[in-house]
Amino acid sequence: MEPTSTPDLRLLPFDRAAALVARLGFVLVHDERVGEAGASAGSHLIVALRDRPTLAHFDPERMTWYVTSGGKGQVVEFHRSRALPERMEVAWGPVRIFDRLEVQNTFCTFGGVLRAAQDDPQTTLVVLDSPAPILRWSGHSQDVDPLAPEVAAFFARLLVPIDFTPGAEARIASLSPTALYAAFIADLRARYQGSRELRETNLGLSEWLAHEAHRLETTRPADWEAGRQMVLGLELAAAPI
After folding, report:
1. 151: Cα separation from own chain's centroid
2. Number of Cβ atoms within 10 Å of the Cβ of 221
3. How big, in percent rounded to 5, are the helix, strand and coil portions of the chain?
């Protein structure tokens, strides 16, 4: 199955995106509601692929991300010399941008929509919009978001049922980005609820998880339940959820 639609997706206007990277190679911006753990309700990764490096910030020349085709994940690579559809569904996983020296910055996404436009004859503007957080994972020109290691670990754990459980990859791919994010929150909250040591040593994160779980359960009940059922069905949870 292919990813479900994302009715809660907010597309960042291209003129706004262009203004944000006028002097930068890339920038990650979040919608207004941002939690204490650094995760927002929605995020937008903006990348400017230019003919010539500016040497002013980071100068991306190519990008990679994952898409889902026939229930399977595939890597897509894009640079300015390749044609890109105006709109492409991006799957969960890492998004990487590389400069001419193969230095990279990496982000974690739960999925979203990627769009590209010619900002000027020398610049291709690429925007990834997601209704779920996009997190800075690692890189040359950015810090790491506090929640990114937990998201990366969750994604790594998803590879186990993908490798050994028939139909698992298609089931995960069928979730909307918000539902997959809900699965992550449900799983991480369960681990914290099951460990007094985790709660006491990470009190801020524990409280934020409870708040975020409540927000998703009350404002996105269908996504919350879909994510929760995926965690249960694939036996990912280390504690009751």
Report:
1. 9
2. 11
3. 35, 30, 35
In the chain, the percentage of residues whose pLDDT exceeds 90 is 73
Tens of pLDDT, residues 57-82:
999 999 999 999 988 999 999 987 77
Residues 87 and 202 in one domain: no
What's the rounded Cα separation, in Å, for the pair 189 and 154?
12
Expressed as residue numbers, the domain containing 215 is 148-233
Phi and psi of 17, rounded to 5°?
A: -60, -45
- Token pair of 238 as six digits: 């280390």
The rounded distance, in Å, linking the Cα atoms of 209 and 91 is 24
With bands split at pLDDT 50, 70 and 90, how would you rate the model's confidence at 38? very low
Shared-domain flag, residues 195 and 175: yes
pLDDT of residue 239: 61
The pLDDT of residue 2 is above 50: no
Counted domains in the chain: 2
Q: What is the pTM of this model?
A: 0.90
Judge if 213 and 110 occupy the same domain.
no
Do 116 and 218 belong together in one domain? no
Q: Which of 167, 190, 192, 182 is nearest to 219 (CA)?
A: 182
193 burial via Cβ count (<10 Å: 0-12, 13-18, 19+):
middle
Q: Is residue 116 part of a domain?
A: yes
